[in-house]
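pasting for the record
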Amino acid sequence: MESVIDQAFAAALYTEGDAGLDAGASLLAAAPQADAELVRRGEEFVRRAWQRGWLPADVVRLVRRDLDEHAAGLAAGLIASEVRRYDELPPRWRSQLDELPAAPPAGRPDRFSYASALLALFRLLLALPAIEPVGPPPGAAREALTRPSVAGEPRMLTRIRALLAKAEATGYPEEAEALTTKAQELMARHSIDEALLAARTHGDRTPGACRIGVDAPYETAKAILLDAVASANRCQAVWNSDLGFATVIGFAADLEAVELLHTSLLVQGTAAMTRAEAGQRAGGRKRTKTFRQSFLMAYAQRLGSRLADGTARATAEAESDADGGARGGAALLPVLAARDLAVTETAEQMFPRTTTTRVRGATDLDGWTHGTEAADRARMGGRARGIGR
């Protein structure tokens, strides 16, 4: 059995081109007795991905991008079976596992196609580079896998998610603005409370990190939007354009805020872009790609500007509350400054060498105008969440 798999792997995984895949798939298709061992080998490849810093969502996202949805399902099946060997999993893993796509049945649509798809997946998994870890791998010491729960987190996150879901669903811009502003105010209060609590108890002094997918098309505009949201929430974002994700560094409560708000603003912006584009098409316009690119670029840059403008006011208001004892009497600005420094130091340790990218300018005036207007409707009001970078 192993000799058949080894021959198939030698033909398909360590040579380039479709001919090798076809040869390896033919060998495996004729050896159904090798199926169990083939899955076990696949689990080993997945395990290597964890050791190289990858998370389940990262693997599935890259497989979907570079191969197809069927391959993403195969990867999800291997991930689900591989993680059964662990008694405990790192933070964030459970939610990622819950969102994995369904695994297709083994041997479908036929044995050759199934083997060919698996070998193509294995070839990709073998080529995964090592990336910066954003948490412990499964199987780490129990202490590393345990993240202290944030006081009041479940109820707060439930309220925030509900507000943002309503903002995404409504067709009325004013209502979406009010709902998003309220959600951000809850995030801001929660974040400041957590910062002051950590300062008093000498806890949560080490920033963490998470990865957020930045998918094509228009990934540059999406990365700019994510960077704006991260900066406003006292986090830093580093975009890896080749692998299609950004790593966000910050404290736990702020990372939650970035994930929630970025997702919601992207949904709101996409919906607004679709509506604006429909109006343009009704007027006989056909330049869809340039309109969308310019729309999202304007949307991202306008939101970034508004978030930055609101930061000083929100911080000053919170500092006034702290001085008055409303939040325990701790001096807020030194606390936030210390956390900013910790985030910067962590980001520099994780990414000692970064580069800047020249952003291609927007070329569609109508798209830019509509994107700016959409950003104004999704504005954050007087609520930004800390000291900008």
